[in-house]
Automatic annotation (TrEMBL):
<keyword id="KW-0812">Transmembrane</keyword>
<feature type="transmembrane region" description="Helical">
    <location>
        <begin position="278"/>
        <end position="301"/>
    </location>
</feature>
<dbReference type="GO" id="GO:0016887">
    <property type="term" value="F:ATP hydrolysis activity"/>
</dbReference>
<dbReference type="Pfam" id="PF00664">
    <property type="entry name" value="ABC_membrane"/>
</dbReference>
<keyword id="KW-0472">Membrane</keyword>
<keyword id="KW-1003">Cell membrane</keyword>
<dbReference type="GO" id="GO:0005524">
    <property type="term" value="F:ATP binding"/>
</dbReference>
<feature type="transmembrane region" description="Helical">
    <location>
        <begin position="195"/>
        <end position="214"/>
    </location>
</feature>
<feature type="domain" description="ABC transmembrane type-1">
    <location>
        <begin position="31"/>
        <end position="338"/>
    </location>
</feature>
<dbReference type="Pfam" id="PF00005">
    <property type="entry name" value="ABC_tran"/>
</dbReference>
<feature type="transmembrane region" description="Helical">
    <location>
        <begin position="307"/>
        <end position="326"/>
    </location>
</feature>
<keyword id="KW-0067">ATP-binding</keyword>
<dbReference type="InterPro" id="IPR003439">
    <property type="entry name" value="ABC_transporter-like_ATP-bd"/>
</dbReference>
<dbReference type="InterPro" id="IPR036640">
    <property type="entry name" value="ABC1_TM_sf"/>
</dbReference>
<feature type="transmembrane region" description="Helical">
    <location>
        <begin position="165"/>
        <end position="189"/>
    </location>
</feature>
<dbReference type="InterPro" id="IPR039421">
    <property type="entry name" value="Type_1_exporter"/>
</dbReference>
<keyword id="KW-0547">Nucleotide-binding</keyword>
Length: 621
């Protein structure tokens, strides 16, 4: 059952509606917990009443007026445990009765807590699953511009935990408070109306005060949560970039940079603690005043002889039973304030549109693509300032190799992202096998590509599971074949654990070139109709580069290949070469035609061949 925490207008629900929606699917479990709570609370009531009845009918001298002023309820309780004649000779009866009721109360309390914990853990697991699932499907625009990784992590962990604590400890506690107030009140009223008013008169004030106070300070919970989110993001970024910090000797700068959000977090936390301390102190003063008033009123009525000692004993025990949960209402409201802020932040993610939200799929072929690609007047901008790629038209036939060259920032990677529909082009069309990719199912579309991104990301898992990432059922022979083509098989064999070698945080660190080659193996293992290599050989040496190119050429005709590179040696073999400058195609041809044509390609060719000649001459000397 999926979680829906907002109304039709997309606003996060609030108050009881939010809690009701949150516990959807687990309401019956909470009902059982509430029932257990009710039974456990009832047993708790009986204990002081047994004590009071024993005081009034057995322990107090039966002077005129005293037992006569005892309440009918205590009379009933005394009869229930056997009557004063029996109890006066067997004082252990009330004692055993109290122990039995306490034990039964404890047992039901245990069940109540277990049911609430199961429900809260279940709700939060569902919430985390849903968040994780949703994050996988968010649009690239949202991930690029509207959020930070650390903040996302905080929402999925700390905010969910805040919710869990509230659900485990407080949802049933609200029930307890309501049950207590609703049951204790008639019991007290049945015993003595005046003393009840004196004992509970401040209760509405405490409840109203708690409600208004928490409402007023709720914004502080948001501030603390946001400050924590900023801090988490900074820590996450810093740990990821720790080598850069060290290489540039920027520890002091980074420590100083950390100081500000860290201080902000401390200051907002302190502000919240200070505000809440005031809240608790004032609520304590009112509660203690309430007990004081009850004590004075009891003493006055006892001196007058209008209430029995047992009634006073019962009242004092019952006031404590009610005041504690009423004071808990303050804590519940506080935690509910925190939880509703956390849920709002969680809901912000859950209400983000999926990247597939506006898809209008009219075409989902059953077979793999042939691999023909056609771009017709494609334009796209990352921001409203300028176009990232403009008016791009080109075509690649199945099995052909297209190379893209261009200065940094000219839009090469963006073009690749458009092919994969990480973004949709603003105008123009991209077709795969004659079908507009906007009409194709995204997972079908992406399954047609083997991609090596510019910064290949590898998981902290074994080399095998990294290569196997896109084809989990691939066997050892297929994995090794892909690794051989990417010229990484021999290197893997030198590792003690071979393909089982753990990489990343859990194991060895691969060099940049090795990472690229593992990523190429991963892409090749899919045997994709289209292979996209974005600067995928930039970190490998010339010799390995030429071996990989040879291996790729041996696959010629099997896949359409699109290669982005800065080194002309990587591009020269391509069937077609496109030169991209400032987001536009400025040259188009083959290596031969472009070396003869005035332009960027020729200039780079001249520089690179001259460099190679100089190097060769230097080596001969
Ligand atoms: N997610 C993004 N949000 C905003 N702008 C972006 C984003 N990605 C890229 N850009 C901008 O788009 C332009 C083209 O970037 P792109 O990565 O496509 O260039 P490139 O030709 O692949 O560069 P390089 O050769 O350095 O990899 C750059 O000006 C870059 O700043």
């Amino acid at each position: 059952m999926s979680l829906k925490l907002h109304n039709d207008a997309g606003e996060t629900l609030s108050g009881p509606k939010l809690v009701w929606q949150l516990i959807a699917g687990y309401r019956s479990m909470y009902l059982w917990a509430a029932l257990a709570l009710f039974i456990s609370t009832s047993f708790q009531f009986i204990i002081p009443l047994i004590g009071s009845a024993t005081i009034d009918y057995v322990l107090t001298e039966p002077e005129a007026g005293k037992t006569a002023n005892s309440s009918p309820l205590l009379r009933y309780v005394m009869d229930l445990i056997g009557g004063e004649e029996l109890v006066s000779t067997r004082l252990w009866i009330p004692l055993i009765a109290m122990v039995i009721f306490a034990a039964l109360g404890g047992l039901f309390n245990y069940y109540q807590k277990l049911a609430a914990a199961k429900a809260s853990d279940g709700i939060c697991k569902r919430m985390k699953d849903q968040l994780y699932d949703h994050i996988q499907r968010l649009t690239n625009r949202y991930l690029d511009h509207d959020t930070q990784t650390g903040d996302l992590v905080q929402r999925c962990t700390s905010d969910v935990e805040t919710t869990r604590i509230f659900l485990a400890a407080h949802v049933v506690e609200i029930g307890r408070s309501v049950i207590l107030v609703l049951t204790v009140l008639p019991i007290m009223l049945s015993m003595h109306v005046g003393l009840t008013i004196a004992s509970l008169g401040l209760l509405p004030i405490i409840i109203l005060y708690s409600y208004l106070y928490i409402k007023k300070v709720k914004h502080l919970f948001t501030e603390v949560d946001e400050a924590e989110g900023r801090l988490t993001s900074l820590v996450q970024e810093n740990i990821t970039g720790i080598r850069v910090v060290r290489a540039f000797g920027r520890h002091d700068y980074e420590i100083e940079k950390f100081e500000k959000p860290n201080s902000e977090y401390r200051d907002t936390s302190l502000k919240l603690i200070n505000t809440m301390s005031w809240f608790w102190s004032i609520s304590d003063i009112v509660s203690l005043t309430q007990i004081g008033i009850a004590l004075i009123a009891s003493a006055y009525l006892a001196i007058q002889g209008s209430v029995s000692v047992g009634t006073i004993f019962a009242f004092l025990a019952l006031i404590n039973m009610v005041l504690w949960p009423v004071r808990m209402i303050g804590r519940i409201l506080t935690d509910f304030g925190k939880t509703s802020v956390a849920l709002k932040r969680i809901n912000e993610i859950l209400t983000q549109p999926f990247e597939t939200e506006t898809d209008d799929i009219s075409c989902k072929p059953d077979t793999a693509a042939q691999g023909s690609i056609e771009l017709d007047q494609v334009s796209f901008s990352h921001s409203s300032d300028s176009k990232t790629v403009e008016d791009i038209s080109l075509s690649v036939s199945p099995g052909e190799t297209l190379a893209i060259l261009g200065p940094s920032g000219s839009g090469k990677t963006t073009l690749m992202h458009l092919l994969l529909r990480f973004y949709d082009c603003d105008s123009g069309t991209i077709k795969l096998d004659g079908n507009d990719i906007k009409t194709l199912d995204r997972s079908y579309l992406r399954a047609q590509f083997g991609v090596v991104l510019q910064e290949p990301f590898l998981y902290s898992r074994s080399i095998r599971s990294n290569i196997q990432f896109g084809v989990s059922q691939a066997n050892q022979i297929e994995i090794e074949e892909a690794a051989r083509m990417a010229c990484i098989h021999d290197t893997i064999q030198t590792f003690t654990d071979g393909y089982e070698t753990e990489i990343g945080e859990k194991g060895i660190t691969l060099s940049g070139g090795q990472r690229q080659r593992v990523a190429i193996s991963r892409a090749l293992l899919r045997n994709p109709p289209i292979l996209l290599l974005d600067d995928a050989l930039s970190a490998v040496d010339n010799e390995t580069e030429s071996s990989i190119i040879q291996a790729l050429q041996s696959r010629r005709g099997k896949s359409t290949t699109i290669v982005i590179a800065h080194r002309l040696s990587t591009l020269a073999h391509a069937d077609k070469i496109v030169v991209l400058e400032g987001g536009r195609i400025t040259q188009f041809g083959t290596h031969k035609t472009l070396t003869e044509e005035d332009g960027l390609y020729q200039r780079l060719w001249n520089i690179q061949t001259k460099l190679e000649e100089t190097l060769a001459a230097e080596t001969q000397r």
